[in-house]
Amino acid sequence: MVRVPSLKPTQRLTTVPEMLHRTPNSAVIVSCLIVFCLASPSSQASISSSSRSNHGDPLLVETQSGLVKGLNKNVLGRDIHVFYGVPFAKPPLGSLRFRRPVPVDPWHGVLDATILPNSCYQERYEYFPGFEGEEMWNPNTNISEDCLYLNLWVPERIRIRHSGESSRERPKVPMLVWIYGGGYMSGTSTLRIYDAGIIAATTDVIVASMQYRVGAFGFLYLSPYFNGDSEEAPGNMGMWDQALAIRWLKDNAVAFGGDPELITLFGESAGGGSVSVHLLSPVMKGLVKRGIIQSGTLNAPWSYMSAETAANMGRSLVDDCGCNSTQLADAPSKVMACMRAVDPRTVSVQQWNSYWGILGFPSAPTIDGVFLPKHPLQMMQEGDYTDTEILMGSNLDEGRYLLNNIYMGRPGRGTENLFPPASTENLFPPVSTENLFPPESTEKLFPHARTENLFPPVSTENLFPPESTENLFSPASTEKLFPPESTEKLFPPASTENLFPPVLQGVGGYVSDTADVCGRTATIYLDILTPWPIYLDILTPGPIYLDILTPGPIHLDILTPRPIHLDMLTPRPIYLDILTPRP
């Protein structure tokens, strides 16, 4: 492993093109949004015999592992060379399950790199069958533990120039390396939205992506139960997968026309967290110095896990898989033999029993003392990292997608995880009302004299003297309260047309013309955080924006002709009575 001395970070601004096309020499944090999209073909590469002298074919590349042959694709009228399913590690099967990846053995002949590789083992999300917004994230290739493969997209013009010039004259272009997200529990580089054909067709940049193990297959941590030299369940196997893939790309960059010193990692969500880990980890020193981090960093609470937490979750999974965690103390090897014999489907399902609430994923990079030697925030505060360049950004409202998991009824994903018994005590502890309204505060707010002034003993008589009720509800009083003409003013014939224009008439009800009632347009904004039930009765001609967080029931009775925006988070029932012609 190459190590470079740690440099003191400095800050300065840079542009994306400048960042990609020069050697990094400074640390920079820039706010931006990177969009990675777009279009592609499905499962394992094969090797055929061929002579290594066939260098006239630009689709044939000689790597340090062996010859690979890709395919030509036309994107936006431009040709690119694509290489799918290039292995960088031995399949992590059998004794290699729950261990760090082992570099792939060199192969003889030509490897067929024209078919998308397997996706690493994971569950498919099938809560909403047929809904493209969900299915677009499910693996589109075979799910298997044999999944450690790379994909590359290379502009044809780079390959042709590269193969037609001497090694000294060959151009070297930057390389972008994509790391997918998925909460360290799911994801695959083969998704159509991750196809980098457009980037390769429109820029002088090589794009690569890798598969890495997710869930327990990539992050099971039982290292404390083994001696220091053991390779059993060390945690962070998925991070080591990524690191080995990056090492392979750096070693073979020149073969594809890339510059090994101009490698930029980029990823989203857990992929962004992974980029953060690589830029911070001492394991990666000398490999990469720049990253584009989208919607996920290492200081997010879901993006790392203490060794103690990871070991506890690992022990729980051992029990859930029927392998008896009590044997870890005396016979840990026996436990691992049992875990390797467990069907991958069982491991994949049982790991979710450790899901501890929204964003409480069962797997994450672990502070293992090696890949992450210390708490990431401590490492950043101490400047324990090399000179680094970073672009950062996030996507608006993307976290709302995760709320789907709360109400799906999966084991370990119910409302008890959103507000488990302990959480409401933490959120609204028994003494919270005293903290909010301590005895002395109410005395200051409402001294004893105030109640007498506010409600003197004779106040009810003054407010409703005996004769007043007679006047109020005398036979003629209802006519005074609601004379015939008042109802016409309150509910004029045209009011329903204002509230429900002709196209929406008949939607319902005899409703008031709120413009007459309120006399003006009013917009209501409510941001409510409370331990109590919420009862709202709202009548307004203006839009309504509600943002509510409560462990109690919510009762809403709303009448408005304008749009209603509701953002509610509660494990209890929601009762809605809404009358509006708008969304």
Automatic annotation (TrEMBL):
Pfam families: COesterase. InterPro entries: AB_hydrolase_fold, AChE-related_enzymes, Acylcholinesterase_insect, CarbesteraseB, Carboxylesterase_B_AS, Carboxylesterase_B_CS, Cholinesterase. Its EC number is 3.1.1.-. The keyword Disulfide bond applies. One of its GO terms (cellular component) is extracellular space. Gene3D superfamilies: alpha/beta hydrolase. One of its GO terms (molecular function) is acetylcholinesterase activity. One of its GO terms (biological process) is choline metabolic process. It is an enzyme of class 3 (hydrolase). Signal peptide: none annotated. It catalyses: acetylcholine + H2O = choline + acetate + H(+). Residues 59-407 form the Carboxylesterase type B domain. SUPFAM superfamilies: alpha/beta-Hydrolases. Keywords: Disulfide bond, Glycoprotein, Hydrolase, Neurotransmitter degradation, Serine esterase. Belongs to the type-B carboxylesterase/lipase family. This is Carboxylic ester hydrolase. It comes from Timema bartmani.
